[in-house]
Amino acid sequence: MEKIRVLLVEDDPIWRKSLAEYLSREDDILIVGAVETKDEAVQISRLVKIDIILMDINLTENRLDGIDAAIEINQIQKTKVIVLTGLNEEEIILNAFTAGVVNYVLKTEFRNIPNIIRSTHNTNPIEFLIKDYARLKQEEHLKELTPAEREVFELVELGYTQTQMEQKLHKAESTLKNQINTILKKLNVQSRKEAVQKVRGFGLFKSREEDPANSPVKY
């Protein structure tokens, strides 16, 4: 029998150890790692195959960086992320789902986690709804962009450099920089990376108090 390969990401060492021991008693579940931080989770996802990630939503106090980690890991390998948290706020749940999370479990339900892992590992029809909802939310972020700006953003999302975009779009450096500046202002962010993360993650970044037009833009 092939075991379900599970990565546990939890900043509380006692909870992390207890949950790892609890899940290790299951014959069909294999813990491939139990890590504390977002960086550790991303690093291990580059090294081993993972079927399911149990991800604490707050790896750093009140930062919701577990959602951020889910976004990055899904760019490395396609896995299913179950958010494990003590929070039960609708906005946070929606943010988690639109970031690619496929299930959301409160820590008070820990006894059900083995069965939740199994059901998530198998066909999960809600994933299709989640993906569609995520697409709609991404479109909501991008609706203010013109077709030309959308074209530039798509290349930014694909990781094109400034020079590569200039060559592909046949645009002058000044024209392209102006368009990127406009995109960043419309999305209320200060860098290309932050723009991509905001659109993919839906609402991970709070609105800035300061006007981005008055802040230096990072390239």
Describe this structure as you would to a colleague.
This protein is α/β, with parallel strands linked by helices and 219 residues long. Helices cover 51% and strands 14% of the residues. The chain has ten helices and five strands. It has helices spanning 13-24, 38-45, 65-76, 90-98, 113-121, 126-142, 147-157, 162-169, 173-187, 192-201; strands at residues 4-9, 29-35, 52-56, 80-85, 101-106. Helix 1 links the parallel strand 1 and strand 2. Helix 2 packs parallel to helix 3 (65-76). The longest helix has 17 residues, at 126-142. The N and C termini lie far apart (49 Å).
Labels describing this entry:
219 residues, alpha/beta, 51% helix, 14% strand, elongated, disordered C terminus
Question: How is the secondary structure organized here?
Answer:
Layout: E1 4-9, H1 13-24, E2 29-35, H2 38-45, E3 52-56, H3 65-76, E4 80-85, H4 90-98, E5 101-106, H5 113-121, H6 126-142, H7 147-157, H8 162-169, H9 173-187, H10 192-201
Parallel strand pairs: 1-2, 1-3, 3-4, 4-5
Helix pairs in contact: 2-3, 6-10, 7-9
Q: What series of H and E elements makes up the topology? A: EHEHEHEHEHHHHHH
Mean pLDDT score, rounded?
Answer: 82
Number of helices, where a helix is a run of at least 4 consecutive DSSP H or I residues: 10
What's the end-to-end separation, in Å? 49 Å
Strand content: 5-15%
Number of strands: 5
Gross morphology: elongated
Strands side by side in the biggest sheet:
2-1-3-4-5
Helix content: 40-55%
- Major sheet attributes: 5 strands, parallel
Structural class: alpha/beta
Q: Would you identify the regions where 5 or more consecutive residues have pLDDT less than 50?
A: 202-219
Backbone CA Rg: 19 Å
